[in-house]
Amino acid sequence: MTTAKRLIPGYRMSLSIALIGVLLVIVLPFCALLLAGIQVAPQQFWAETTNSRVLASYWVSLKGAGCAALINTILGLILAWVLTFYDFPGKRLLDYLLDLPFALPTAVAGIALAYLFSDRGWLGQLVAPFGWKISYTFTGIVIAMIFVTLPFVVREVQPVLAQLDQSFQEAALTLAAKPHVIFRKLILPEILPALIAGFGLSFARSLGEYGSIVFIAGNQPFKTEITPLMIMFKLEAHAYQSATVVALVMLCFSFAFIFIIHWLQNKARFRQGVQP
Fold first, then answer.
1. CATH-assigned architecture of domain 52-274
2. CB neighbours of 223 closer than 8 A, spacing ≥ 6?
3. What secondary structure letter does DSSP report for 130?
4. Structure confidence at residue 274 (pLDDT)
5. Average pLDDT for 210-236
6. What is the SS3 assignment for 9-53?
7. Per-residue b or e along 220-244, where b marks 16 or more CB atoms closer than 10 Å to that residue's CB
8. Closest C-alpha among 261, 260, 250 to residue 34
């Protein structure tokens, strides 16, 4: 019995390169972090994990990432909808600008946001008379996270919207279905997995964001100090074991969140395949 020829040559070589790349770039760093965490004494691990300042930084990072991901999911859906279904002057420019956070260094983004929202900045001066302060507050952290992660949602949802079958929507319109019913019954089930993926990418990226936040957050302990900054402080103080513990807890948060996101995506796809 002869084996079927593979349509694409170089299977073994490409697979080997891919596996080696994943091993070197992803698996080995995680294993190194886990091994370093195992070497920490349980008492020290618990003390570092339950430190009040560290717990506060976890809460700031998680809350900020959650707020940014939720806002990005709504705003990203609207932007993807506009870019997919409407034609207007400057549409292509807007589409290009959405990719700017991918290419822009995060430190440059942080400096730009700090200047824009500071007390003497353009937007900072506009909201100052109302008693609103954006720079060096939790609001500034969320804005920085939104700026960096908004394209993730748009680029996840936009292709799905472009591939929607318009005939079902037209049939629903002929049956006098209301727009919100069409969206809830026909469109939302189709784009829900992409929305969940965009939310997850936005949350995960925001959780680990550092460069754009440190310039606008103020870095006040218990208020605007994020966990990546806490890790940096510990590394600068040569407290490597302490930094390892904090990083390991963040890694556990990330793994748990990724598991939940994949479970929700699979559930949404299953319901999409079962329901007519």
1. Orthogonal Bundle (1.10)
2. 56, 60, 138
3. G
4. 45
5. 88
6. CCHHHHHHHHHHHHHHHHHHHHHHHHHHHHCCCHHHHHHHHCCHH
7. eeeebbbbbbbbebbeeeeeebbbb
8. 250
Rounded to an integer, what distance in angstroms lies between the CA atom of residue 245 and that of residue 227? 12
Helices (H) and strands (E) in the chain, counts: 15, 0
Q: How far apart (Å, rounded) are the C-alpha atoms in residues 159 and 100? A: 19
Judge whether 136 and 220 are in contact, CB under 8 Å. Answer: yes
Tens digit of pLDDT for each residue in 170-184? 676 676 667 777 777
Write out the H or E segment, with its range, that includes residue 242: helix 240-274
Q: Which pair of tokens denotes residue 219?
A: 């870095």
Q: Which residues contact 124 (CB under 8 A, 6 or more apart)?
A: 116, 117, 118, 133, 134, 135
CA dihedral defined by 128, 131, 137, 140, rounded to 10 degrees? -50
Tell me the residue type at 273.
G
Residue 264: count of CB within 10 angstroms of its CB: 17
What pLDDT score does 71 carry? 96
Place of tokens 């904090």: 246
pLDDT at residue number 154? 94
- Per DSSP, 129 falls in state G
Q: Are 95 and 83 in contact (CB under 8 A)?
A: yes
CA–CA separation, 238 vs 248, rounded Å?
A: 17
Say if residues 19 and 12 touch (Cβ distance below 8 Å): no
CB atoms within 10 A of CB 219: 17
Question: Other CB atoms closer than 10 Å to residue 163's CB: what's the count?
Answer: 9
Q: Would you put residue 121 in left (φ > 0), alpha (ψ -120 to 50) or beta?
A: beta
